[in-house]
Design goal:
alpha+beta, four-stranded mixed beta sheet
C-alpha cells in the first residue's frame, strides 16, 4: 500500500511492505523519444512521433523543438514536427535533462546567431566542458560558466576531424552525431574511453530511421556524411527498459508481474537487467514484447553496470534482498548524474539498515531486510524509485521525502506501483 501525504508543505510518499502482482505497460523510452524529436526538427518535411510520453525530460525536448523547428503540433499521443531550423529568439530551457543540454547545444550550433541554453536544479551542477570542447573543435563558438550551464553557442558547425573523450558521458557524442549531417563538411570523430555503447547504438538507430547512415569502426572512429539531409519519418517510441527495471526487480522481491511494451530485440542498455535477475535466481520469462518475472529465493550476483549505469539504483534494491554480498561494477559512472548516485544510494539504504560499501569502482550490497525509515530522494528520480521498490520486501513503513522527482522520467510510477501492490 502507498499513501501520498503533504506535511508542512512538503510531499511525502508512504510505502508499506506489500506483495506485488498483475500486469502493467512500460512507459515510453525518454532516451528514444528525445532523439527522435531532435532529429525530426532537422528533417525536411513533416515527421510524426508516436507514443513519446509526458515525462519532464521529453517535455523539455518538446519545448525546445517548438522554438527551433518551423512548427510543432501535439495531438494526444502524437507529435507532428515540421522540420527546418529557425532562430529561437529566446533562451532555451532544458529543464533538468543532461541529454537535452548536450544534444540541443550541438543542434543550436548549426544556426548562425547566438543561442543560449540553460536549465534548472541538478543540471546546473553537471559538467558541460565537453560541450564547448567539441563544438569549438568543429568550428563553432561556445561559452560556458566555468564548464557548467548556461551555455551560449553560435554556428556554423563546420565539420572536420575531432577527438572526443567519452569517459564521463556519451551524450555529447550523441549530440555531435545527430547534428553532424547538417554541418558544412563531413566529420571524422575519434572517440576515447566510450562507456555507453548501447546509447550510441540507440542514436545510430534513430538516425537511420530518418534516412542517415553513419559508419563507425569498433566505436572508436565515426564517419558522418555532411552536408546530408534527414528525411521525415513516422517514428514509434518503444517502451522504456530503464523505468520497467524497477518493476521487474519489485516482482523478484515481492511477487510476480508481467510488464508489456518491452521489445525483446531492443538496443536499450537497460535491457541488461534481465541478466542480473537471471543470475540472482529470479524466475524470468522474456517474450517478444513482454517480460514476466516471479519471486524466488534470491542469491547474490555480480554485475558490470559500466555501460548501463542507470541500472545501479534498481540493482541496489535487488541486492538488498539477496542472500550474500552482491557486487556491481562501474561506480565511476555515477558521479555526474542528478545526484552523486553512489553516495546517495549508500546513505539512503543505510537508513533502511542495508550496508552499501564502495570499494574503488565496485559497489558491494549486503543483503538483508530493509527496516522502517525515512529517506530522501536527493531530488533524483531513480533514488526515489529504488527506495520504494526495496521497501516492498521490508519490515516496516518507508517514508520518501520529495517523491515527485519521479516525474523527470516516469510520472506514472507511483500510480503504477499502487496498481500492482497486493495488501493482505
Amino acid at each position: 500500500m502507498i499513501v501520498l501525504l503533504i506535511v508542512e508543505g512538503k510531499m511525502q510518499q508512504i510505502i508499506q511492505p506489500s506483495g506485488i502482482g498483475g500486469k502493467l505497460q512500460a512507459p515510453p523510452s525518454k532516451s528514444e523519444a528525445q532523439r527522435a524529436i531532435a532529429i525530426a526538427a532537422l528533417a525536411g518535411g513533416v515527421s510524426h512521433i508516436l507514443g513519446s510520453g509526458d515525462c519532464q525530460d521529453v517535455q523539455a525536448g518538446i519545448r525546445i523543438v517548438s522554438s527551433l523547428a518551423r512548427r510543432l503540433e501535439e495531438n494526444e499521443d502524437l507529435i507532428i514536427i515540421h522540420g527546418g531550423l529557425r532562430e529561437p529568439g529566446h533562451v532555451l530551457d532544458c529543464g533538468e535533462s543532461g541529454l537535452g543540454m548536450r544534444l540541443f547545444s550541438a543542434i543550436a550550433a548549426l544556426l548562425p546567431g547566438k543561442v543560449t541554453l540553460t536549465g534548472r536544479g541538478s543540471l546546473m551542477s553537471r559538467p558541460m566542458f565537453m560541450v564547448c570542447d567539441a563544438l569549438k573543435a568543429l568550428g563553432a563558438h561556445c561559452e560556458s560558466q566555468g564548464g557548467y550551464a548556461p551555455l551560449t553557442v553560435k554556428g556554423p558547425l563546420r565539420g572536420g576531424d575531432i577527438v572526443m573523450d567519452a569517459s564521463i558521458s556519451s551524450q555529447m557524442l550523441t549530440g555531435i552525431l545527430i547534428a553532424g549531417p547538417c554541418a558544412l563538411s563531413p566529420l571524422h570523430i575519434r572517440v576515447k574511453n566510450l562507456k555507453s555503447k548501447p546509447y550510441v547504438d540507440l542514436t545510430l538507430q534513430a538516425m537511420r530511421a530518418f534516412g542517415v547512415e553513419v559508419e563507425h569502426h569498433q566505436y572508436e572512429e565515426f564517419f558522418i556524411p555532411a552536408p546530408a539531409a534527414y528525411s521525415p519519418a513516422r517514428f514509434h517510441v518503444e517502451g522504456d527498459w530503464s523505468g520497467a527495471s524497477f518493476f521487474l526487480v519489485a516482482a523478484a522481491i515481492a511477487g510476480s508481474i508481467c510488464v508489456t511494451n518491452l521489445r525483446k530485440q531492443s538496443l536499450q542498455a537497460d535491457r541488461a537487467i534481465l541478466g542480473a535477475l537471471d543470475q540472482c535466481g529470479a524466475s524470468v520469462v522474456a517474450g517478444e514484447d513482454s517480460v514476466q518475472v516471479s519471486k524466488n529465493q534470491l542469491k547474490a550476483f555480480h554485475f558490470d553496470a559500466t555501460h548501463c549505469p542507470d541500472l545501479f539504483p534498481p540493482l541496489v534494491a535487488l541486492g538488498a534482498h539477496c542472500q550474500g554480498v552482491s557486487r556491481i561494477a562501474g561506480v565511476h559512472r555515477l558521479f555526474a548524474k542528478e545526484s552523486d548516485r553512489a553516495i546517495a544510494l549508500q546513505q539512503e539504504f543505510a537508513k533502511m539498515g542495508i550496508s552499501v560499501i564502495i570499494e574503488n569502482d565496485t559497489m558491494l550490497v549486503k543483503g538483508g531486510k530493509p527496516q522502517r525509515a525515512t529517506v530522501h530522494s536527493h531530488y533524483d528520480h531513480r533514488i526515489a524509485m529504488a527506495c520504494a521498490v526495496a521497501a516492498l520486501g521490508g519490515e516496516g513503513r518507508l517514508t520518501i521525502m520529495d517523491p515527485a522527482v519521479v516525474d523527470k522520467s516516469y510520472p506514472g510510477f507511483f500510480s503504477d506501483f499502487q496498481s500492482v501492490c497486493i495488501t493482505s
